[in-house]
Amino acid sequence: MPYALNLTTLVVSFNRNQNYPDFLVIGSGLQHMLHLTNASDYGASLQFTKDDAGSLVSFEQHEEAVITGSVLVRPSSHLFWIGIPTLINSMLNTDEKRDKITDVLRVGYDE
Questions:
Q1: Residue of 109, 102, 92 whose CA lies nearest to 43
Q2: Three-state DSSP state, 100
Q3: How would DSSP label each residue in 12-73?
Q4: Mean pLDDT to the nearest integer, 80-109
């Protein structure tokens, strides 16, 4: 499931393996909203994801490059975040979705 923590783990693995994607399109709001229902936790998770994902779009100068005076950089990835879409009550087609995804919860996630 694409929870923010899973996405952070994925981004960290790119850095650890030095295998960087050209493009990364991610989002986790709907899954988090349905299964975890904690908007403040979601906000904190997004901050971790943002911090780690920022390392994919920054250029790095490696230690050996500093010693030799050369500059080694890797190309930057292009990141796209999919926000939480506008939810329509009639589209909440299961009892679980109707019970969990309330208007109050939606406002919390939007903030």
A1: 109
A2: helix
A3: HHHHHHT---SEEEE--HHHHHHHT--HHHHHHHHHHHHHHHHHHHS----HHHHHHT----
A4: 85
Site of tokens 């190309």: 75
What is residue 77's DSSP assignment? P
Q: How many residues does the chain have?
A: 111
Of 48, 64, 68, residue with least CA distance to 8: 48
Taking each helix axis as running N to C, give the angle between helix 4-17 and helix 39-57, from 0 to 180 degrees, rounded to the nearest 10: 20
Rounded CA separation 43/104 (Å)? 16
pTM equals 0.63
Q: Where are the domains of the chain?
A: 4-110
HSE-up of residue 76 (Cα within 13 Å, Cβ side): 6
User: What pLDDT, on a 0 to 100 scale, did the predictor assign at position 53?
Assistant: 77
With a CB cutoff of 8 Å and minimum separation 6, the contacts of 96 are 34
Query: Considering the chain, what is the average pLDDT of its residues?
Result: 77
Rounded Cα gap, residues 32 and 68, in angstroms: 47
